[in-house]
Amino acid sequence: MAFFISMEPFKNVFNRDAISMMGRVLAALSAEFPAKKFTRLACRDLETLELKQRSAQICQALEECLPPSFEDAAALIIASLHPSCDANSNGGGTTPEGIQGWLIMPLAEYTGQRGQGNFSLAMDLFQQLTMRFTAEFAIRHMILVHPEKTLATLMDWTSHDNHHVRRLVSEGSRPRLPWAMQLPQVIADPQLTLPLLEALRDDPSGYVRRSVANHLNDIAKDHPQTVLDLAASWHKNAPPERVRLLRHAMRNLLKQGHEKALKLHGMSAPKLADVSLEILTPRVPFHGDLRFVVQMRSTAGRDQKIRLDLIVHYQKANGKLAPKTFLWKEFILRASEVHRAERRQSFRAITTRVYHRGLHRLEVRANGVALAIADFHLI
To answer: Edge-to-edge, what's the strand order for the sheet holding 272-279?
Structure first.
């Protein structure tokens, strides 16, 4: 039996009121823009569509209602943008003053589709759009069609005054950006984007540095050794901000217990004895918590840096178990010290996971080494 929770659908960021406001903003700037037609086309069967489908439908409505010339359409789009150049990160905010937030998404997609024949104008427009939300999904059209020119322009943008534009450099060129088209050429050859990341690795904005870390995490999925070699180079004499960047970039390698990744962050095979895992709630109810205790004793003659990971093997609908790794904590284990820790692992309803009754399994690892494993049941 499955259990899940319902919430206000995220797709509703594209709603009739917001779309109507977008049409009114454009019509206020051009008497030829058919606001009623735009709203009718963009809102057609809106309740039946998911988020990306809604964005695509708004984009198609723009295609039908904006001027046929891309140059004229781009001029109208730029004039319609909100005066603020600090992107509205929560996705809202379109007002009679101008468009920003989630409604930038279909404008950017229109630019990516229609602007391929006018590279310079399209890239200028992407700069303006990303400062009002993000153009990370749509700029990928340009990387696919004009890879050399686009990557060269992105390199120029690494020194842009606006941190949203600098973030677009890294986020828009991520090889496996969620929700977005993949970039097969970057997946195959990460050297294409590494110069961009090198230029941004010490960016003053944490927002940009986090994007660099996520980009490296993408690369690590296909080229772990490339990221390990890069991280070893970047780690030398690194400021604290870059160390944190590398830690976030290598999060999946660390979860996988990759020896070189662990070593780079000061962790080696643990020296432990008397390890025990006690399940305090062998029968966990829906909405409840799994409670357990782990104990271990150091056999090392010096301090050890310990990373504890939990692997919950969740029951699937077909009866098989699927593992999911969670970082529990990191700590210094003193020589000969006994460490005991209790934890709760929630089985409360969330939108990103469906729970199934039956056998589950808990595994505990230290620095990538399996310490103990035990079963429990979700009832």
So the answer is: 272-279, 289-298, 338-346
